[in-house]
Design brief:
Layout (H helix, E strand, L loop, with lengths): L5 E8 L2 E5 L3 H12 L4 E6 L6 H6 L7 E3 L5 E3 L1 H11 L18 H10 L7 H19 L10 H21 L8 H11 L2 H6 L3 H12 L2
Parallel strand pairs: 1-3
Antiparallel strand pairs: 1-2, 1-4, 4-5
Helix pairs in contact: 1-3, 1-6, 4-5, 4-6, 5-7, 6-9
């Protein structure tokens, strides 16, 4: 008998509740399931108007949440991807401990720069420094963070870099410098993977999802 698909609740698109949304943490979980070829059922959650059944299983109202074997729903993409790795160990997506935090400051640096109204607050330079550090790591160890094979850290970074590229260009006219050639090659590699193409949100939905945060 075929295994029952695992269930995961993820964000629906802003203004389009029947379309997969723009949450990078939800996409990270979906990427992990796709890379491991785990059959899964997506439940799209309209985060603007969360249904009662969802608030029952996720009292904090956060996505993603993942249904475990004991019918318990678990939040937090860090925890969820670890559970998936333990239950479905092949192919392994384990990132060696020494590389597990590579690029981890890029997303908060991006958000700070995106929201910044002061061109002299150093937020742009901080983001550039983080991207440069990733470029240097990929130059030495690439094409992925852990060499030839994709791993968990790449699946965490991929959606965040996708958002960064779209959102900073749209709201600030800012692009990742061309001289960061290893970062550009890395993004191209990630964004062209079948798993990414199947789970990525549309550019329009990414922009719509960030607009309230930019204008806050």
């Amino acid at each position: 008998m075929a295994a029952k698909p695992v269930e995961v609740c993820v964000k629906a698109a802003t203004g389009a509740p029947d379309i997969l949304g723009d949450c990078p943490f939800s996409q990270r979980v979906l990427l992990t399931l796709e890379e491991k070829k785990v059959p899964h059922e997506k439940k799209l959650i309209n985060v603007e108007s969360k249904p009662d059944w969802f608030l029952t299983i996720s009292p904090g109202g956060k996505v993603p949440v993942f249904k475990c074997d004991d019918d318990k729903w678990v939040p937090d993409s860090d925890v969820i991807t670890q559970i998936i790795e333990e239950k479905y160990p092949n192919p392994s997506l384990v990132t060696p401990q020494e590389y597990s935090s590579v690029g981890s400051k890029i997303f908060p640096s991006f958000v700070k720069f995106l929201k910044s109204k002061d061109p002299n607050d150093g937020s742009e330079q901080t983001l550039l420094d983080e991207l440069h550090a990733l470029d240097e790591h990929l130059k030495a160890h690439g094409p992925y963070v852990n060499g030839e094979n994709i791993s968990a850290v790449d699946l965490s970074l991929a959606p965040k870099l996708f958002h960064l590229e779209i959102v900073l260009d749209h709201f600030k006219g800012w692009k990742i410098p061309e001289n960061l050639t290893y970062v550009h090659a890395y993004m191209k590699l990630l964004f062209n993977r079948e798993s990414f193409i199947k789970t990525k949100p549309s550019k329009e939905h990414v922009i719509a999802g960030w607009a309230p945060k930019v204008n806050a």
